Amino acid sequence: MTDILDKIRISKVVDDEKGEMEYKVEKILSKRKRYGKVEYLVRWKGYMVEEDTWEKEENLRNTQEAVEEYKREYERTARRIREEKDRAYSRSECHEPPPQVFD
């Protein structure tokens, strides 16, 4: 007997042009480099948090919008952190430059 989660999962799977099963990405949560390859932590639409998975960049070819949104959010966060450090430095009496943030 199929449980309710299996029914939800089945409804979230889409057939692409090649006849392969394709899952929908809800959001990209993080990025890492493993064995020289970029991987993204993916939250799958219709799945629980415990089922987030690390996926190789090339496996996300049909989800470029989610990848681009992650990159934009990452840049906004990095910029905000740099600006906060710069403001803290300008208010301090210290004359050392703030530490550099490297991506």
Describe this entry's structure for a reader.
The structure is a single chain. The protein is α+β, with helices and mostly antiparallel strands and 103 residues long. It has a domain at 25-91: OB fold (Dihydrolipoamide Acetyltransferase, E2P) (Beta Barrel). It contains 2 helices and 5 strands. It has helices spanning 4-12, 64-91, and strands at residues 13-15, 21-23, 25-34, 37-44, 53-56. A hairpin with an 8-residue loop joins strand 4 and strand 5. The chain is elongated, with a radius of gyration of 20 Å. It starts with a helix and ends in a 12-residue tail after the last helix.
**Strand-and-helix sequence, N→C?**
HEEEEEH
Shape: elongated
Instruction: Give the integer mean of the pLDDT values.
Output: 78
- State the CATH class of one domain: Mainly Beta
Summarize the entry for a quick read.
The chain is an alpha+beta fold and 103 residues long. Helix content is 36%, strand content 27%.
Strand-helix topology:
Layout: H1 4-12, E1 13-15, E2 21-23, E3 25-34, E4 37-44, E5 53-56, H2 64-91
Antiparallel strand pairs: 1-2, 3-4, 4-5
Which terms summarize this structure?
about 35% helix; single chain; 3-stranded antiparallel β-sheet; alpha+beta; OB fold (Dihydrolipoamide Acetyltransferase, E2P); two-stranded antiparallel ribbon; elongated; about 100 residues
